[in-house]
Amino acid sequence: MTEILSGQDLIDAGMPQGKWFGKALAAANAVLESGGSPGDALEAARTFAPPPALKLHAAHSMPLHLNIEAETPDEAANVEAVTRSMAELMRTPVIRAGAIMPDACPAGPSGTIPVGGVAVSEAIHPGMHSADISCSMAISVFPGVAPAALLDAVHAVTHFGPGGRPRGQQIRPAKEVFERFEANPLLRDLTSAAIEHFGTQGDGNHFAYVGTLKSSGETALVTHHGSRSPGARLYSKGMKIAEGVRKTLSPETLPQNAWIPADTREGDEYWDALQTIREWTKGNHMLIHDLTAEKLAAKLSDRFWNEHNFVFRRSDGLFYHGKGATPAFDNWADDATDLTLIPLNMAEPVLIVRGKNAAHGLGFSPHGAGRNFSRTQHRRMQAGRSDVDIFAEETKGIDARFFSGVTDISELPSAYKNAASMRRQIEHFGLAEIVDEVVPYGCIMAGDWEVNAPWRKKKEMRAQQRQQSES
């Protein structure tokens, strides 16, 4: 009778138990059935074993470049938190280098890439581009159009807040982009979301900003948003894939830093999906700009765009993750120009810059002004002042609007780092050259839409009903 190997035999041979045992035992017992020795069978089984777990890098063994200076005690605390978090991230086994931009601020538990962080890796880390894949900036110049008319026009055609456009107002993405959704296994179930959210800008710090070019006085529209629901759902799928890899290859790695290996089927599919989401997001910007031009029957003289929350593969084969960091190296994308956009806050100019590919910035520049405090902390610091008073003081001289009709004070200028400081540090660290500015006229943001959210209204109604029944 032919001997049969069991899972216990593999364990006794020093193999770590796992799901791979099924295939390993089938191969081992096939060797025995064909007349092979037990030793040959165990060797056949061993070929299915996962590789040894990768160890974390020793602390501070990977290069980390700090392009940030604290000018106040609050900023010092912020820099300390950001540096501590990046130092922990740098221990991830596939990470090769990191950098911190002047606008950096913590995001999540320590060890999470901060906003304003750059990480270079052998692999793709979904957690390092986050749910807002391809969060980006776009500018179109509208010669001869009055800023007030342009702001009114974009207000009429854009959509801020949760969800997508209502039925009857939905717009289908370009045919070639839609076909890429249908062809990718990670995206083909997101086609409905790709239609519903096309032509929307979301919430948070996303905006439609109108101003005039400092160099020429021409009116310009600048938009800021990411990939909405399609990107968020791809991110969730990517994190699930990466977590499976982490548990097998490096259980010591923090879950938020899990990775998808390059040049594997999963890696290729995810990389292709990222490029498709990028094209969808670019198209989303251009759609809003084109609808605005159509509303005004106006012509555009110039436009360009750049993402600042993405991952780029450079000629060295490594993946450069910019989490709230603007690419500043040449030819960062097929459609790259030599100019990129850095916003500061709604009352400050949007900077038009030329990147310097600084080695200590790993080829990136800042993406904005960043925060020293969380939204909750900032609101707490405004205690004793009404939202009306805060809004009036901080938006003096500009036409600031909130799409929901409710002011979100956590998006007003005081919520962000000092704009002058950001400009000084961009110059001091040689991260980019400021070549022009869009001087603010007005800005539209989502506002605090949750105040009137249906779930909140239902909760308030239930509370009122309970009070009435108890009285």
Automatic annotation (TrEMBL):
A molecular function (GO) term: GTP binding
Protein name per the record: 3'-phosphate/5'-hydroxy nucleic acid ligase
EC number: 6.5.1.8
Binding site for Mn(2+) 2: 224
Residues involved in GMP binding: 343-346, 367-370
Active site: residue positions: 367
SUPFAM superfamilies linked to this entry: Hypothetical protein PH1602
EC top class named in words: ligase
Alphabetical keyword list: GTP-binding, Ligase, Manganese, Metal-binding, Nucleotide-binding, RNA repair
Cofactors (names): Mn(2+)
Pfam families: RtcB
Superkingdom of the organism of origin: Bacteria
UniProt-listed InterPro entries: RtcB (IPR001233), RtcB-like (IPR052915), RtcB-like_sf (IPR036025)
Record flagged with keyword Phosphoprotein: no
An example Gene Ontology biological process: RNA processing
Sites where the protein binds Mn(2+) 1: 206
Lineage, top ranks: Bacteria, Pseudomonadati, Pseudomonadota, Alphaproteobacteria, Hyphomicrobiales
Reactions this protein catalyses: a 3'-end 3'-phospho-ribonucleotide-RNA + a 5'-end dephospho-ribonucleoside-RNA + GTP = a ribonucleotidyl-ribonucleotide-RNA + GMP + diphosphate
Coiled coil: none
